What we know:
This protein has 2 helices and 7 strands; from the N terminus they run αβββαββββ. It is α+β, with helices and mostly antiparallel strands. The chain is rod-shaped.
Amino acid sequence: xxxxxxxxxxxxxxxxxxxxxxxxxxxxxxxxxxxxxxxxxxxxxxxxxxxxxxxxxxxxxxxxxxxxxxxxxxxxxxxxxxxxxxxxxxxxxxxxxxxxxxxxxxxxxxxxxxxxxxxxxxxxxxxxxxxxxxxxxxxxxxxxxxxxxxxxx
Length: 153
């Protein structure tokens, strides 16, 4: 003989409670996800900053080895594989620093002889989410690298 089952499933109230809990969790998770994108862009800026510092130091070292008197004005240095970097006091100029980097994929570059600005292409506000490289202005003043990350949304 077959006995009738007393299993009924979920009540409407239980289903509504679960949906409300999922809605509350989603309300907290979505802003956190957006904040992770902001943090990722800030991390990209920190990576660009480190790359610029390393590239600048390597070009300066190469300039010192190639011709120590070159660090007293403008010149150029071959960093290998036919890549020529224009220098000012042994450091890369604003227009040549991006050439010293291995890759400029996923970030924009705007350069002049005295400075270069780098920003993540995914950032909506490049003016408040960038790294600015300013070329050396004398033999005693190395280039400056300034990171701005006030709005990397």
